[in-house]
């Protein structure tokens, strides 16, 4: 595999295929998510879906074909998405009278039904979510990160006023940050986007930004306060307590299969994937060693141990069905596929009732490979896995901090964004953002929610900053 | 609502909208599945997904855009699906060189990847499943039953030989029958389809058929043995133990949102939906009664009881937030929406610690509405719900038996299929099936797996039957 330091892109493109996460689809820009990759998505989905439901949202399913005329009703929205649309023009053997857009996102079609379902203030808030595939035609596709078709959830809600809609927008952002930290071990930075980076049709866009191991930023989830833009375009109105008609305030928010790319690029190394236990299809793999009778004895012990570990609610795989492969090959294979914990059981271990436990990476305390009594393992593994999960988060946080620096001069800025994030003041003008991008390929990733109050002048043009804090700049995926 | 006996179709179209299961989509033939309908799908999906995984299948996700050329590789397949295809011809602002079909089913694209992933007999069986949306352009759409876009799971597997592939085909059929019986309380009949009713590209097609309350049949799930048809079209080959190249034998099987239509038409009545507890979004609804202080006291008791019932793992809803509606309106509303059990708590009940329990239908023992001590309710409800579930299955089974009859003359045949199913002998010729359909609108639904061995002559043309048993004939959805 190409080393990360040599060509990070090449490393990524190789590892996603070798680890059997994904294959290129038959149509340019599409992907086949293979079982090992899809399981990561299912684990993320189960947790996020539970949080969405516990906060009072209901899942629904809206059609993926949207009449072209719907998109045109919100001017900024159609302008933002037009270049990326896939259009059905023929169906049932006939040319269609009105072409159908395959949804790039569902604000418009859901807006149409919100207008139908909402009459009174009693119908608000209306809290909807859907798990769906969406299509945005990609000229420079990248597996998981930018594909023509991808999977996501999209929340769409309607509220009585701005304050309630903003509470929802912030709830979604906080939830995404928690999922990223707790499941993906990604120490993301939440914050607002600048005007130049806003969602097409939004009043305010919020994001969580993660740092990848090449120092670039990945936008891993977004939450939008749409004001009354879509309410006016689709006539989403309600009668208030006095009987007067008012426009609802709406929000939308999404997290996608892009998160899988984030996991790969946050934790992976030159040996391949490193998966956080909470998203690992196999948290533990047991490899029995030995040939013939000895191999049968260790395989039997591996299966017994596997059953005991499984009964603790741990996802475990026993690699006892590939006699044609050497133990060394198997060790490398599971390391490449990112399994957090590997247990090796050799013929000489059996008499002593021990095995070797190998972590995918040595944890902070220097624990890599150790001999461990098998009888105690099922009880000890939950803590070992939790420690490994915490270790990955701390490692990613340390990496991000090492590669983030406050810069106040234009010379320092260019050097800093070549391999990390720059904390810098900015004037807030979109033209100035464009200049910075043209010169360095870096963009403002967000106005960090937790950034300390500080005044200063634009790192590029010297005009005073209106934000009252430094922005994060970096090259983005 | 239109009574079922007056116009069953009108009843169906009204109830699906009034009960807030679904709305018409913006494009002809599409549907919006609303939260109350989508929850039914989620409950079915969770159970079926668990069974699919326990039997060793892995979920994956294949692209929905399929190059038109893929479909042409299997001649029968393309012929069967061509009239129903939706085609993307423009994307990213340009006319595409090769039009893309939106998947009507995924045998072709999955076949392409099976060929890539399978090398050796060690790679078999390959057991894949995906949960996806598919598109088949519908000229006579009907919510849930025939819509342009619908949701389903599609299993796709590859095997070493016919025997192993047939075991898989039968496993899927048995699983569908179990899900229909145990969750949907639909006493479906499993069996093989005749040649005239086979899936386009299959060697053998199996189905589960349920009887709806108008006597028609609903095909509620299908399982196909595809032989080596797709293996030859897509070159799915493996090296056997001797090193020789062999074609794999493949299967496919699917169950869809059509099942929701089956639930509605199997159990519903003139008051509206009747939902089996295992698929009911709300298994129990509690309606507190009374105005002002009295209303506040019963609502408090309803919430306390609701929490106790919820802690038993029961899906319960407390209707305490619609003071503008009368109790009678609420009772009718929840009956129309099919909630299995309703608990009413009135002001006079509080002192006695009792409430009224009303079943959506009186069960076989004549239990409809009864006074019940609230303290015992959380413990007793699981059994009450299980009894109601069993009652619905028995009721549907009795209905089906009453409306199924063996017929041996053509005169009797026409009368029988006008409101039920006919068990009849058939010659096996597709032209004769076509004659029967032209005369009566009835088709052979299946060769019932459990039908007793019996010899006879075709009910239509008098030629001898090759099946060794009677077929089920009926009008189909
Ligand atoms: Zn500036
Ligand atoms: Zn005949």
Automatic annotation (TrEMBL), chains A, B:
Residues 28-276 form the Aminoacyl-transfer RNA synthetases class-II family profile domain. The keyword Nucleotide-binding applies. One of its GO terms (biological process) is prolyl-tRNA aminoacylation. It holds the Pfam family ProRS-C_1. Gene3D superfamilies: Anticodon-binding domain, Bira Bifunctional Protein, Domain 2, C-terminal domain of ProRS. InterPro entries: aa-tRNA-synt_IIb (IPR002314), aa-tRNA-synth_II (IPR006195), aa-tRNA-synth_II/BPL/LPL (IPR045864), Anticodon-bd (IPR004154), Anticodon-bd_dom_sf (IPR036621), Pro-tRNA-ligase_IIa (IPR002316), Pro-tRNA-ligase_IIa_arc-type (IPR004499), Pro-tRNA_ligase_II_C (IPR016061). Its main location: cytoplasm. It catalyses: tRNA(Pro) + L-proline + ATP = L-prolyl-tRNA(Pro) + AMP + diphosphate. One of its GO terms (molecular function) is proline-tRNA ligase activity. CDD domains: ProRS_anticodon_zinc, ProRS_core_arch_euk. It is an enzyme of class 6 (ligase). Its EC number is 6.1.1.15. GO terms for cellular component: aminoacyl-tRNA synthetase multienzyme complex; cytoplasm. Keywords: Aminoacyl-tRNA synthetase, ATP-binding, Cytoplasm, Ligase, Nucleotide-binding, Protein biosynthesis. Belongs to the class-II aminoacyl-tRNA synthetase family. ProS type 3 subfamily. Homodimer. Catalyzes the attachment of proline to tRNA(Pro) in a two-step reaction: proline is first activated by ATP to form Pro-AMP and then transferred to the acceptor end of tRNA(Pro). This is Proline--tRNA ligase. It comes from Thermomonospora curvata (strain ATCC 19995 / DSM 43183 / JCM 3096 / KCTC 9072 / NBRC 15933 / NCIMB 10081 / Henssen B9). The gene is proS.
